Amino acid sequence: MQNTRAQILLCAGGSCISSGAESLRSAFEKELSRFQLDQEIGIVNTGCMGMCEIGPIAVIYPEGIFYQQVKPEDAAEIVEEHLLKGRVVERLFYKKPGTDELVQTISEIDFFKLQQKIALRNCGNINPEEIREYIAASGYEALGRALTEMTPEEVLEEVKKSGLRGRGGAGFPTGLKWSFSAREEADAKYVVCNADEGDPGAFMDRSILEGDPHSVVEAMAICGYAIGAGQGYIYVRAEYPLAIKRLRRAIEQAEEMGLLGENIFGSGFNFKLEIRMGAGAFVCGEETALMHSIEGKRGEPRPKPPFPAQKGLFNRPTVLNNVETFANVPFIITHGGEEFAKLGTEKSNGTKVFALAGDVNNSGLVEVPMGITLGSVVYDIGGGIPNNRPFKAVQIGGPSGGCIPKEYLNTAITYESLPELGAIMGSGGLIVINEDTCMVDLARYFLEFITEESCGKCTPCRIGTRIMLDLVTRICRGEGTLDDLARLEELAPQIAQTSLCGLGQTAPNPVLSTLRYFRHEYLEHIQDKHCQAAVCASMVWAPCTNACPASVNVPAYLAYVAEGRYDDALRVHLQSNPLPAVCGRVCPQWCIKKCRRNDLEGPLAVRLVKRFMADKNRTYTELYPQKEDDKGKKVGIIGSGPAGLTAAYFLALMGYETVIFERQPEAGGMLRYAIPDYRLPREYVDKEIDGLRQLGVEIRVNTEIGRDLTLDQLRQEGFDAFFIASGSGKEIKPPIEGVDLPGVYTGIDFLERAAKGEELDIGKEVVVVGGGDSAIDASRIARRLGAENVTILYRRTRSEMPTNPIEIAEAETEGNKVEFLANISEIRQAGDRLEIDIQRMRLGPFDKSGRRRPEPIPDGGETRQVDNVIIAIGQRADAEQIAAGVEGLEVDRWGGIAADLKTACTGNPHVFAGGDLVTGAATVVDAIEAGQKGARAIDQTFFPDSGKTYIWEKQTLPEVEADVDKEVGEEPPVSMPLLPPEERFISVEVERTIDDEQARCEARRCLRCDYKE
């Protein structure tokens, strides 16, 4: 073997080959030759290194420099700069998800350093097509030791000591299985390797066969010796041509070196190995069906017992394990079963290989100790969810596995823990799911796969899964009923209990697990005809509209703006949302998270276009929907925030006499008193409210319900119903010393007093505690009131801050600092200043929200002197005064009104409630949805009509032709116009309105997902 000063290890797994690894090797060979380095630099094609998402991969040793997504044209730079001049090529380094921090060596990348490789010990490190490299890595040492130093019984005992369980899914103890066959008397016995990997998204076995085929060959020979078998078969699916090629070469090389065949190691033991190719039938992953296929029969399972250990292949005793199980055996024999058993847990020993796929930054092949938590695999090794999207679940165990939601991210991965959650280990497929996945549709997908792959031998599987699929498909189409749901739950256990083989017995799992944890999504599909993830097409007008809580027909008003028909655009908006000028400034834009333009250059600037069209009209009273005739009913609205204003708007349109009661001197609620005017100038709040007054809505300010008037008194005045939407304006204070000292403010109180123009004593040094909108707004207002140094303390990380990332960036642009993983633990008076203790935090286990719980670092703190502290860590409602003495009206544990989230109904038939008062602090557009629900509930109370479609529920195509055949090109989105930082501190609006041309150009970027013809 040639001595070299450095080696280039190129990943030659299937994924990297498909990405151009072979061309990359040729490019390196050419460049090494050009610089006359071909005699001192070696190139090694390895098996899969595991990080499939970022291939082709090249690792330069001895330093271990890791290059990702290397193209053939990059070879020249790597050879000249790195290998010739000693200067690494940083632009090809791996970037940490979320931070984009460059990582230089493979050993520093979390994806690799947190793994513990046994089955994959050689994958990515040796040339799988060269037996000498395997031998140099202690290959065939285990076989030699077993044949020359151990008896078959000692081999069996070592495997039993290891605690190794079958990695194919069932988890049966491997040593026990081998011993069953060993004690059988027969003229022939067989060893079979199941490499028929059929789970969607799974590639564990394929990667081992491609990257380290000799480990399986060696292990099967050891098994043959232990049980007294002289023949082995590897059953591999024909769709794995590279695995078959490398496996065939490994067998040939082993035979040439006397490591297979006759009299191995002079021990008198003979063992032959053959490859059998499967045709891709998923059911042939079941052991008896697999053996039937090897025998040339139809791949169908048979009843057990007898088990294969007694009567298996050709009716002889047979051990059948999967690829990963065998790949662990050489390590066990070489290092001892007890060493292997040290890894993992008491009952689930060793490591497990997973194919990590789906919505995760670092997808690929990982091997981790048993007992590691799901959260650690997804976030520490997998790098979390792309673009910091919310984690929803992991699907584990293949098509017949189960889904585990975010509440269980701390669950240890073991054979015992997963079934308790309704899942199974399976062969090792682990699919990460974010909020864009519909769980009903996911269940339908796996049921469809199972139904198609059923061999049809037994009726429960053949017919039962088809019925289940039809029922779930109906639900996905919006045609399902609650009876369908009941039938699914009735069928599932029957199919599981009566099917012949494991396929049918686990077939209902996708439905059972999604029903267990995501039943609300099934109910939404059935009762509301709504798919939260915007996947089920029959229930989705357009993804953006589906994502909007207020159901605004975004494509329609964009189409009108693109044509310059601004009044028509506003009419569309006012059909669902009466606050376009407000939402054009402060809407969180849930719509753009679903925008299909995300797959190209970026989502549409929907809010900027909305702001533009709203600002075109000084008033839009004439554009409101037509008002209905007087209903003869009078409704009181408690609170004039966005929920109350919206309910009043729609009730007035429906012909109700509507009166809003507001305790503050001016209407607007949180819009006026919680959102600063640099984001939402008061003139736009007044504009929207004036429109409602012109519509006929009466607003009584300085009137506090429960103090100035009671609901019972209003009933006597002739009010027929009430909608309580008084918000959650009571600040939550942390349980620490000093929160009531002078100079300490709460966020909402501070913002409200600033909005009213009250004089506030703000010093030069201010600390704000919290990470939401109130905290960011308070920090920016403090700067505008004269503070020179403003620091925001947030106990989690930047990616977890619940406010808009743009607002964080703007606060930093204005000079404010954000300290993450920091919290305040005590406040003391220090002369005329405040002294605070700051506690440094670290992220611990996951909480039920799917986020890591911050925990204090022992001795990790500091003391700091400041002038003011603003605590903005959340709000709660305070409805006790309103509810006092009102029959049926209950206050929940958070101080809000107990009401149904869907219907807004309370325990009193005349009183309804919604918005922050019911849900906790939310956004403006969420409050608008609550107002819609309140208006609907009141109307249905007086004029019941279950078939009625309300104006905000009606979606129609705009009178603008959609060119669906037009080629879609990438067009840069409009830039957000912002004032420069030096002009912002005179209390003016920071954001500016785009012009006509920008608005029309941006609107033309819409892909018109509403147009389905």
Q: Main beta sheet, described? A: 5 strands, mixed
Count of strand segments: 31
- Tally the helices: what do you get? 38
Note the gap between the termini.
65 Å
Please estimate the helix content: 25-40%
Gross morphology: globular
Sheet-strand content, in percent, reads 15-25%
Mean pLDDT across the residues is 93
Extract low-pLDDT stretches: none
What strand line-up does the widest sheet have? 9-10-8-7-11
Instruction: Supply Rg.
Output: 33 Å
Report on the structure:
This protein has 1013 residues and is α/β, with parallel strands linked by helices. 36% of the residues lie in helices and 17% in strands. Strands 9-10-8-7-11 form a five-stranded mixed beta sheet, with helices on both faces. A five-stranded mixed beta sheet has the order 13-12-16-14-15. A five-stranded parallel beta sheet has the order 19-18-17-20-31. Helix 17 (439-453) crosses helix 21 (509-528), helix 18 runs antiparallel to helix 19 and helix 23 (554-562) packs antiparallel against helix 24. The longest helix is centred in the middle third of the chain and has 20 residues, at 509-528. The chain is globular. The two termini are 65 Å apart. The mean pLDDT is 93.
